[in-house]
């Protein structure tokens, strides 16, 4: 800003925040002359340019001319000569009030600004020497509250920046807020710019804001069970069958907050698991963006993002933690922050599965000083263990298989991203496509294909589907829609080629040979890195595959939706957009190499074949390798490889200028028969389920359609235990149906242990299982216990009545019932051969703090008073939340009532229904229970004690026996009644009955 004029050259300052005594000539903010009619407006302005009191003015004076004795005029109308004395008095009073208000306001602002002037004068002493002398003459400083100081600071900063004095504004701001605020402000700005746009590539030339497309994901409280190393397509199917209601959900912004039952538990490290493409990185991006915009987690003062893919690039270097943070957080080194231990810090470590550091928790040296130099691996392990910055919080994301890299000892909370449920799928498509009508058509097409709908659990697959189907549905003709995964990915590749042709002009288009070379080079990289288990590739990985780094950069430029290049730490990092895209290109490469080049890459020593062989040989080798894999890492690869052999797929590939040989019909049917043969073998459920997906890719639905027809007819489907293929088809249909069955009734299919074992995957995914009267024995309980202990189980209702489980079976079952993963609410064990021994184990279940059991039916078991006594120890425990207990026909007497009465009084808050009918309680027993209910103020609303007599205490069938008498009113007149009407004799004369 230019200076208004000054006669006090050396003693003046352009940045003075002092009172008007510091200047000789007042500042001029307006070049226009004042008009007499505008005087009343100028009176209200905070600064006046015209003043006769030169020595009392200031460059940034906040005084008005009212301080010079001129009253303000609020009315533009001339005063009337007849104005009453009362109005004159009122106006004078208002003027006095305003003058007093102005005086105090000016004094307050001057005092507040005085502090800021001192800050600047400390740095520019030569400019403020004269001001200091005048300060001595000032009155005693006023007492100012924080809000006034804050307001004055904003005024000062606004003026300084309008004067282009940014350095002085920064000095003032730093002095007031401190170094933390200044760096925090810079950090937020940096993180916002880095995370506010989604890294999604489209035909548009502008970036996509994360907020416009972000769909809130499904985060649940996880578990610390054995790490799931299965291929992620299996985990997708498992997650698809889970129900949202059975899991504890957590908001991303609350991941460090304890749940209601965890109050007081400190949460330092959170590990979030999720399959590839499920949205881990996008969720991290949204979390950081919300923090940078001051929306959530404002208790965190500093947030540092340390992606593992970037840490890999400096894995051989040594540095201190502070030096490491200097690389990842611009401005930290220039700031005055040297000790992080004084602040609340969060480290976000995204992509543990991409980590290529050893993470040697046992062998690494201990490091406690953030300024001590160490290897990057040592810094990470010490940070996770808590030797470095023990008060800091850590959020680590990973795929399931890599979760074991961090010992459970150092993880306070395990969470898992489940991906999209059905409503979230629709929300995503509506946001991504932007046209509600078009989005509905896309969703309808996806729902019509089981395998596609299941895969849409993964956000990345929704993205692929929205690109392919959105474009196809938008066309007037529509065309034939993809129904298999292979078709979807070929169309996706076709879309990529179309984009490339739009991007390059005619003379720049890659010819067909170059197009073929691009996809084969990417396919080679995909296959070789898939064999190694790598999802991201560095320059050395490309060189090992024989791909030039510059060449890879070209590929990433023309195949932006398939293959991406990122710049991290001045190095290039490459990756496919998703694991499934990598697997598809790998399958395409293997297929072309076999059918065109004559090389089978699935054998140990691939070599050129002297003569062509049927594609069935390749398929057989692939099926065998997939079945031998313990974690199913070739499951999706196998589906793609088989799907590529269809003539319809090859027509699409030819449209992409990819060389393929015409498929052989004989090989096609041989492959189908071989897969059906394997379905009949004894494979784990997840393996034969994938085989059915393979049949779907080969366009063979015979087995599935047969089962579906029976189910649609609503008739019981009696299964042959020897037909493994039909059982597999039944399970496949039940698990992949869009309308998953809420209840599985084993009796509809089989009443055998074999049937139970075959149907286990469907039972585990259902809410309710009716297994009553199915000839199950004690050893079946072990299998059921394993289901109840699994984190993937959905069971909340289980009926095992009328099975001879005995006490040994109940003992096995209770192991599962006490698991933290068990969600069972209702358990029916009528007529299961249970005695007092089994009651002891059930009492432990009732006492378990994690138990969800609310209804227990033990009717018609010979548990007697001793069993009730044991059961009551659990029932009376404060951890017991049981609401309904049925004990009819259990041989209970008054003695058992004593135990139950104690339990009801000890824990009166939950039990609302108690059935003691058909027992020999006696009047005293009933009285004991009734009194206990009154004394304990129980919640019990329903008590059954009917049929209370010694008669029901008889063992076996005798309890049901009764003395029958003939009623003379209904007897035939030729019947003669005797022996108290219990004996009937046929007579010849009519009797005098009514």
TrEMBL record:
<dbReference type="InterPro" id="IPR013320">
    <property type="entry name" value="ConA-like_dom_sf"/>
</dbReference>
<dbReference type="InterPro" id="IPR006574">
    <property type="entry name" value="PRY"/>
</dbReference>
<feature type="compositionally biased region" description="Basic and acidic residues">
    <location>
        <begin position="32"/>
        <end position="46"/>
    </location>
</feature>
<dbReference type="GO" id="GO:0005524">
    <property type="term" value="F:ATP binding"/>
</dbReference>
<dbReference type="Pfam" id="PF13516">
    <property type="entry name" value="LRR_6"/>
</dbReference>
<dbReference type="Pfam" id="PF05729">
    <property type="entry name" value="NACHT"/>
</dbReference>
<dbReference type="Pfam" id="PF17779">
    <property type="entry name" value="WHD_NOD2"/>
</dbReference>
<dbReference type="InterPro" id="IPR001611">
    <property type="entry name" value="Leu-rich_rpt"/>
</dbReference>
<feature type="region of interest" description="Disordered">
    <location>
        <begin position="1"/>
        <end position="96"/>
    </location>
</feature>
<keyword id="KW-0547">Nucleotide-binding</keyword>
<dbReference type="Pfam" id="PF13765">
    <property type="entry name" value="PRY"/>
</dbReference>
<keyword id="KW-0963">Cytoplasm</keyword>
<keyword id="KW-0067">ATP-binding</keyword>
<protein>
    <recommendedName>
        <fullName>NACHT domain-containing protein</fullName>
    </recommendedName>
</protein>
<dbReference type="Pfam" id="PF14484">
    <property type="entry name" value="FISNA"/>
</dbReference>
<dbReference type="InterPro" id="IPR007111">
    <property type="entry name" value="NACHT_NTPase"/>
</dbReference>
<keyword id="KW-0677">Repeat</keyword>
<dbReference type="InterPro" id="IPR041075">
    <property type="entry name" value="NOD1/2_WH"/>
</dbReference>
<dbReference type="InterPro" id="IPR029495">
    <property type="entry name" value="NACHT-assoc"/>
</dbReference>
<dbReference type="InterPro" id="IPR041267">
    <property type="entry name" value="NLRP_HD2"/>
</dbReference>
<feature type="compositionally biased region" description="Polar residues">
    <location>
        <begin position="83"/>
        <end position="96"/>
    </location>
</feature>
<dbReference type="InterPro" id="IPR051261">
    <property type="entry name" value="NLR"/>
</dbReference>
<keyword id="KW-0433">Leucine-rich repeat</keyword>
<dbReference type="InterPro" id="IPR043136">
    <property type="entry name" value="B30.2/SPRY_sf"/>
</dbReference>
<dbReference type="InterPro" id="IPR027417">
    <property type="entry name" value="P-loop_NTPase"/>
</dbReference>
<dbReference type="Pfam" id="PF17776">
    <property type="entry name" value="NLRC4_HD2"/>
</dbReference>
<dbReference type="InterPro" id="IPR006553">
    <property type="entry name" value="Leu-rich_rpt_Cys-con_subtyp"/>
</dbReference>
<dbReference type="InterPro" id="IPR032675">
    <property type="entry name" value="LRR_dom_sf"/>
</dbReference>
<feature type="domain" description="NACHT">
    <location>
        <begin position="268"/>
        <end position="399"/>
    </location>
</feature>
<dbReference type="GO" id="GO:0005737">
    <property type="term" value="C:cytoplasm"/>
</dbReference>
């Amino acid at each position: 800003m230019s200076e208004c004029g000054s006669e006090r050259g050396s003693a003046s300052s352009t940045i003075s925040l002092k009172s008007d005594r510091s200047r000789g000539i007042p500042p001029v903010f307006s070049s226009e002359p004042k008009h007499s009619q505008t005087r009343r407006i100028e009176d209200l302005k905070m600064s006046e340019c015209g003043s006769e009191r030169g020595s009392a003015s200031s460059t940034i004076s906040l005084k008005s001319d009212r301080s010079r004795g001129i009253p303000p005029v609020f009315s533009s109308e001339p005063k009337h000569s007849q104005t009453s004395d009362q109005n004159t008095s009122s106006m004078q009073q208002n003027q006095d009030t305003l003058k007093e208000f102005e005086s105090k306001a000016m004094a307050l602002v001057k005092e507040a600004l005085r502090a800021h002037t001192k800050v600047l004068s400390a740095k520019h002493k030569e400019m403020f020497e004269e001001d200091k002398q005048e300060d001595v003459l000032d009155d005693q400083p006023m007492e100012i509250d924080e809000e006034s100081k804050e307001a004055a600071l904003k005024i000062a900063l606004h003026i300084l920046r309008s004067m282009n004095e940014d350095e002085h504004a920064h000095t003032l701001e730093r002095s007031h807020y401190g170094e933390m605020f200044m760096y925090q402000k810079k950090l937020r700005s940096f993180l916002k710019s880095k995370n506010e746009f989604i890294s999604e590539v489209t035909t548009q030339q502008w970036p996509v804001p994360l907020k416009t497309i972000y769909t809130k994901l499904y985060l649940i409280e996880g578990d610390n069970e054995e790490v799931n190393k299965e291929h992620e397509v299996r985990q997708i199917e498992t997650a698809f069958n889970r129900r949202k209601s059975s899991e504890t959900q957590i908001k991303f912004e609350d991941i460090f907050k304890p749940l209601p039952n965890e109050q007081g538990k400190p949460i330092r490290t959170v590990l979030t698991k999720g399959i590839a493409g499920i949205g881990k990185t996008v969720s991290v991006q949204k979390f950081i963006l919300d923090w940078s915009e001051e929306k959530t987690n404002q208790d965190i003062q500093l947030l540092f993002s340390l992606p593992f893919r970037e840490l890999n690039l400096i894995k051989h270097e040594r540095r201190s933690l502070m030096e490491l943070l200097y690389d990842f957080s611009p401005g930290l080194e220039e700031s005055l922050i040297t000790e992080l231990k004084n602040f609340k810090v969060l480290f976000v470590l995204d992509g543990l599965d991409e980590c290529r550091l050893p993470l040697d928790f046992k062998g690494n040296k201990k490091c406690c000083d953030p300024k001590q130099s160490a290897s990057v691996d040592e810094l990470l392990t010490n940070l996770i263990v808590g030797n470095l910055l023990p008060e800091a919080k850590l959020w680590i994301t990973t795929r399931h298989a890599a979760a074991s890299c961090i010992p459970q000892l150092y993880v306070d909370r395990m969470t898992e991203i489940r991906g999209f449920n059905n409503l979230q799928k629709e929300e995503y498509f509506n946001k991504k496509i932007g046209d509600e009508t078009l989005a509905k058509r896309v969703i309808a097409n996806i729902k019509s294909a089981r395998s596609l709908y299941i895969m849409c659990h993964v956000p990345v697959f929704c993205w692929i589907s929205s690109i392919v189907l959105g474009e196809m549905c938008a066309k007037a003709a529509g065309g034939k829609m993809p129904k298999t995964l292979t078709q979807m990915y070929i169309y996706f590749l076709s879309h990529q080629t179309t984009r490339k042709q739009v991007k390059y002009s005619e003379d720049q288009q890659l010819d067909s040979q170059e197009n073929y070379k691009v996809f084969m080079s990417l396919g080679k990289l995909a296959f070789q890195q898939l064999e190694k288990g790598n999802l991201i590739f560095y320059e050395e990985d490309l060189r090992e595959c024989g791909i030039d780094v510059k060449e890879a950069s070209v590929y990433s430029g023309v195949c932006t939706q398939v293959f991406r290049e990122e710049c991290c730490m001045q190095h290039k990092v490459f990756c496919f957009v998703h694991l499934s895209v990598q697997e598809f290109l790998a399958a395409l490469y293997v297929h072309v190499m076999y059918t065109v080049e004559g090389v089978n890459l699935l054998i140990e020593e691939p070599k050129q074949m002297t003569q062509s062989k049927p594609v069935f040989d390749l398929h057989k080798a692939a099926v065998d390798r997939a079945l031998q894999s313990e974690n199913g890492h070739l499951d999706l690869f196998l589906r793609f490889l088989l799907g590529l052999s269809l003539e319809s797929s090859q027509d699409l590939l030819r449209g992409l200028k990819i060389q393929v040989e015409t498929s052989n019909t004989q090989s096609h049917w041989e492959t189908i028969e071989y897969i059906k043969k394997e379905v009949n073998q004894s494979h784990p459920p997840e393996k034969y389920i994938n085989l059915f997906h393979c049949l779907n890719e080969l366009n063979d639905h015979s087995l599935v359609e047969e089962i579906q027809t029976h189910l649609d007819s609503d008739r019981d489907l009696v299964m042959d235990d020897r037909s493994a293929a039909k059982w597999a088809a039944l399970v496949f249909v039940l698990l992949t149906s869009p309308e998953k069955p809420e209840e599985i009734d084993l009796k509809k299919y089989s009443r055998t242990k074999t049937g139970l074992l075959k149907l286990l995957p469907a039972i585990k995914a259902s809410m309710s299982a009716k297994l009553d009267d199915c000839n199950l024995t004690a050893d079946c309980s072990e299998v059921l216990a394993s289901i109840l202990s699994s984190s993937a189980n959905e069971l909340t209702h289980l009926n095992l009545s009328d099975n001879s489980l005995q006490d040994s079976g109940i003992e096995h079952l209770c192991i599962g019932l006490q698991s933290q993963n068990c969600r069972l609410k209702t358990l029916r064990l009528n007529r299961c051969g249970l005695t007092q021994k089994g009651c002891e184990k059930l009492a432990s279940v009732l006492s378990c703090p994690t138990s969800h059991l609310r209804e227990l039916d033990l009717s018609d078991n010979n548990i007697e008073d001793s069993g009730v006594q044991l059961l009551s120890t659990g029932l009376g425990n404060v951890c017991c939340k049981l609401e309904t207990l049925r004990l009819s026909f259990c041989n209970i007497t008054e003695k058992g009532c004593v135990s139950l009465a104690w339990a009801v009084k000890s824990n009166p808050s939950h039990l609302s229904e108690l059935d003691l009918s058909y027992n020999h309680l006696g009047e005293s027993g009933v009285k004991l229970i009734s009194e206990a209910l009154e004394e304990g103020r129980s919640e019990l609303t329903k008590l059954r004690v009917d049929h209370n007599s010694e008669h029901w205490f008889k063992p076996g069938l005798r309890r049901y026996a009764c003395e029958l008498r003939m009623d003379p009113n209904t007897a035939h007149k030729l019947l003669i009644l005797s022996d108290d009407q219990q004996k009937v004799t046929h007579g010849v004369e009519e009797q005098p009955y009514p």
